[in-house]
Amino acid sequence: MGRAKVLGLTETERLALERGFRFGEKHCFRMRCRAVLLKSEGLSSVAIGGQTEMSHVSVNAWVKRFKSEGIEGLKTRSGRGRKPIMDCSDEESVRRAIEQDRQSVSKARAAWEQASGKEVSDATFKRFLSALAQDISE
Q: What is the DSSP-derived secondary structure letter of residue 111?
């Protein structure tokens, strides 16, 4: 293997990355800033991965994204992660299911599942109900 490539940073970039590493809101963003900073110090991607709990492939990908998009590129893009099963489009049908069977959450959930074609656990259904109740009371 050859020597690790050193990433050249401007003073502005270095300061932004240091600020991101120290004060970034999310742990993953702080680790990405740190990875880019370590790359600028000449560390190998494998060594950086050991310090940031990333694979060397991820380190290289984040460095590449930093080069093309700057520090904004190190933030997690919206639309990542699992989408909620239940959302505001389910409010009306949930209300109807509850009105039909106020005594049993399980029965109301079953009726809603039948009507919506979606499946959720009692816990998810209860969380959704409690969020609905919160919206109503505010």
A: H
Within 10 angstroms of residue 74's Cβ, the number of other Cβ atoms is: 23
pLDDT in tens, 62-115: 999 999 999 999 998 887 777 777 777 778 778 777 777 677 778 888 888 888
Structural contact between residues 56 and 62, judged by C-beta atoms closer than 8 angstroms? no
Which candidate, 76, 69, 66, 75, places its Cα nearest to that of 8? 66
Residue 29: name the closest of 64, 73, 74 by CA. 74
Length of the chain: 138
Please give the Cα distance from 68 to 136 (Å, whole number).
46
Residue 2 has pLDDT above 60, yes or no: no
Find all residues with CB under 8 Å of 96, minimum gap 6, and list them.
Answer: 112, 115
CA–CA dist 45, 47 (Å, integer): 5
Burial 99-112 (b: 16+ CB within 10 A, else e): eeeeeebeebbebb
Take residue 103 and report the two structure tokens written for it: 């005594």
CA angle (70 as vertex; 74, 17 as ends), nearest 5: 70
